[in-house]
Sequence to fold (54 residues):
Amino acid sequence: MKRELRESDFDDKFRTQRTTLANAVRQGFLEWDVRTNCLSHCQITTHLRKITMG
Fold:
């Protein structure tokens, strides 16, 4: 049975990813770019893929 997606479902998912990324930066897995004040999209994608693949 298909359940309807609620907005909170997305919030939870992104909150988890943000926390995961913040932890990764803290642990030195990802390099924070101080000039742009963000992580490169490539790094984020690669890191999340690593996490989801195990």
User: Anything to note?
Assistant: Residues 7-26 form the longest helix (20 residues). Residues 7 and 48 are 21 Å apart (CA to CA). The chain is about 60% helix and 0% strand.
